[in-house]
Amino acid sequence: MRRGLPLLAIALCLGSVEVLACSCREDDKQVSTSEKVQRQFRESDFVAEIEIESVEFDSRTREFPCSIRKDVDGEWVESVCNETDELLVARFRVVKLWKGDSATTTVVTHREWQACGLPFRKGEQILLYAYADERYPGLMAADSCGRTNLVANAKKDLKILRGISKRTD
């Protein structure tokens, strides 16, 4: 036990290591697929069948308040931290639009699956459920916690969405 303590002390002194962990809302097993699709549709800002035209990597650094502490005069001050997001930026063409702005042609997701990223690839046909994310102004974002999927694997969703669009036409 004593041998491990110096190693633990060294590890703690070296600082923190970024850990990515995808954590999604638990899905209610009692809810039907139709209800899940309708809920995802309501919660999304953009729903469309798309074809990925290009994919590139991007890093975006943003500042955010991270702690409040007292300074030497006893005044409360807010510290600002930086965080860099490693993103996958996919440009696409809309095949069929169910919800959102038809001018939308870009979606971002995290680069790593451990951070709930999606593995977009050029040429793929995707059923995309996306949302406006304040971290990326002007862009839509998507993650693996939603129902975004390859069109070939989204037959049930597509059938339900066709029914939704008939009711809203």
Architecture overview:
There is one protein chain. With 169 residues, the chain is of the alpha+beta class. It has one domain: Beta Barrel (OB fold (Dihydrolipoamide Acetyltransferase, E2P)). The protein is built from 3 helices and 6 strands; from the N terminus they run H-H-E-E-E-E-E-E-H. Strand 2 and strand 3 form a beta hairpin. Helix 2 crosses helix 3. The N and C termini lie far apart (69 Å). About 9% of the residues have low confidence.
List the helices and strands and how they pair.
Elements: H1 4-13, H2 33-43, E1 46-70, E2 76-99, E3 106-110, E4 125-132, E5 140-141, E6 149-150, H3 155-168
Parallel strand pairs: 3-5
Antiparallel strand pairs: 1-2, 1-4, 2-3, 4-5, 4-6
